[in-house]
Write a structure and sequence with these properties.
mainly alpha; homotetramer; DNA-binding; Tetracycline Repressor, domain 2
Chain lengths: ~220, ~220, ~220, ~220
DNA sequence: CATGAATGAGACTTCATTCAT
DNA sequence: AATGAATGAAGTCTCATTCAT
């Protein structure tokens, strides 16, 4: 755990640990702001008011530093989810908690997903671990018939993470803050019906209603 | 906006236009494969078998080239949507068409979204234009009561784009192909219930169904 | 042959080839003066009055540049030996030629021998090719009984290369010039007795001398 | 020469001297393994389990440390030669002893020889001191007519050191162990005849024999 | 005395971009 | 119009060395 990212000396001292924390904190900021490629070690060092060499004293290189930042972030969010998940409440409440937590802690690091021989390898296992609680929850709810079983879980997963990240990115691009509580509630309110098992009769009725409505409008448009 | 591409585009001979198209085509490939930062002008020139300098004869620089690539891509997808959108079919069918088109033409250019003094500014208006047909459709459907009105349209939008992009990224990260037809169908099947108004009571639906049925029968009786 | 060390463009033009030759020439000087590790690409560029980047335009890196320098040097000396070797003269004369050529063209590049994950791999095959003419000569002379067969050829080889290099190094360390003709003669004069078969008895030699002499006289008598 | 090692060596407590010995021992290992440039002070400190700073407490720097290592090594080998040299035995036996000792204690430090503003200056006097016993021996043997006097002693010296080092380097490059006893015997067996005064008659006969043989072979080759 | 911590100086390398031909 | 050639600027990383504690 220690010897992975430490350069030579093994700085287990309080000072060293503080340094490591500082570097990680600032690095997270910079990586989040700029993305992996556009982040420079110079920038990180400058923001901390230390020499670039110091950064390399504690981390083997830019890549490893980024991996650590990501790992730490995943650890944080995983811990938050595992600890706080209200397992005794309804699936819907659990989903809401999950979304809220993700929105609160989401780290924008597009390159992670990015192709090239980038950090891809690092992400996959973390992603799996991270997604596990949600997937478990969904699987259980599906087995108990609480949510629909006619679509692959991976699709459900994408339909939960996808909107969250889309919203956050949009907010970042527009430089607007996100009202996390409200957004979490809205997302779940929106998606919840999508997750329920399609009650056949109701679903059929709904569809019928929709189609007739549309047909009506089309006739209306032409008529006028 | 005006000073872009002024350089020597004045003559715009047939040959030159072909060059520009070639460069744009290959540049799109490379940007999509590698992302903005990891793309090199060398790579683009090499794939075309031309000199790097030639690229700079037609474009002011890497950045401008990328902006053009993105603009062209947006133009394409916007045109595809505007032309192909089956306006006379149901909202659901239109949504499906939209999703299918997006999945087919989606350009993965994570950095585009990226912040920093990147391409962010370029994306916002394009994104707006691109989203317009979908938003219009949603707005109309909401006004007619076909889809829910209790949540902001922007959320609905995110809940459509988000999953699509999440799925595509996942596929890219895992290097797996995407079955576009099937995925489009699944996404819509999943999300459709989420878009419907939540407050339509089954009773109301049944009543409506009954009335429409009766009306239909009456028409039938007369016609024959 | 070309694409190995060329960076992007394939500069087969006269100008480019001149550049490559210039860089190789200067690089050889610097590597010889400083050794691999202490040589800097900056130094090479400065001596040529060009930018460092230009060096990297023509060679993939310091390492490859050094490999090229060494290969070229080996090629040169191998060609010189293969072309100039007086095969119709005595073994001793051939040896002298070999020593003279080596002394004239020897490149001091200690690190080549050096361990570490340096250039070692590059040297072995070249060394083998380079040594081949000498080893062949020695093997033939040994098979014909002209030189001793009681010691491994590799030892004989070391006893020829060793002194040469020792002398050259000494001269370099003391910054004194080497009188190549004289040194070559001396080395062979010294080593020749060491190479002869030790067991040829003087008696046998005398007898042989006598017989040959008699034979000669007989020929002479007939010829006149 | 005087200002070297003055730093804090004044007290020279027992503990400190042990430290110095330890550092020198390990430094010798590392320098021998990696060469001067590729050796890092970090590596030396790590192998000793001490801090890098401690190394600098006892030595002014890497360079001085290396000089000390070399000096010590020379001292050792000089002492070994001076003490062990079997002065009452034959010159040949003494030579053998010398070779064996050198082979056993040889320190591979190519860079030492290296030029540049390297350690060159350090080597010359040490080399002189080190070579002294051998040179004396050779001088005496030459004066007594035991070995040849027609060639400069420096050449004889190179013809002894050269092969030894060539063999050792080869062994290191190929990562093979050296059978020291056997190699020492072989080297002397090979070189001894080279050192003997060329008995004029025998030498002339040998040469004659060699040339006639070669001539014969050449005729034979053409004839067939 | 020993060392934890920090760093200045410099190495190699990449790449978008310019310009004369 | 096309390009061969060159490079400035910048980026990542290494390492001997210093100094306060």
């Amino acid at each position: 755990m220690d010897d992975i990212m430490v350069r030579r000396r093994v700085p287990a001292s309080a000072k060293a640990e503080q340094r490591i924390r500082d570097i990680l904190r600032v690095a997270r900021e910079v990586f989040a702001e700029m993305g992996y490629e556009r982040t420079t070690t110079t920038e990180i060092a400058q923001r901390l008011g230390i020499s670039e060499a110091t950064v390399f004293t504690y981390f083997h290189g830019k890549r490893e530093l980024c991996v650590r930042v990501i790992e730490d972030w995943y650890d944080e969010i995983i811990a938050a989810v595992e600890q706080g998940m209200p397992r005794d409440q309804s699936t819907k409440a659990q989903l809401e908690f999950f979304v809220r937590t993700h929105l609160r802690l989401f780290l924008v690091l597009s390159e992670g997903r990015a192709k090239g021989q980038g950090l891809g390898e690092v992400f996959v296992p973390l992603q799996r671990r991270y997604t596990a609680p949600l997937m478990d929850m969904l699987a259980r709810a599906r087995d108990s018939g609480e949510i629909r079983s006619d679509l692959p879980l991976s699709l459900l997963r994408s339909s939960i993470f996808g909107p969250m990240e889309h919203i956050l990115w949009d907010a970042i691009a527009r430089q607007r803050p996100v009202d996390i509580e409200r957004t979490a509630k809205d997302i779940v309110a929106l998606l919840w019906p999508a997750l329920l098992p399609p009650d056949l009769e109701v679903a059929a009725l709904r569809e019928f209603y929709g189609e007739v409505g549309a047909a009506l409008r089309r006739v209306g448009e032409r008529g006028e």
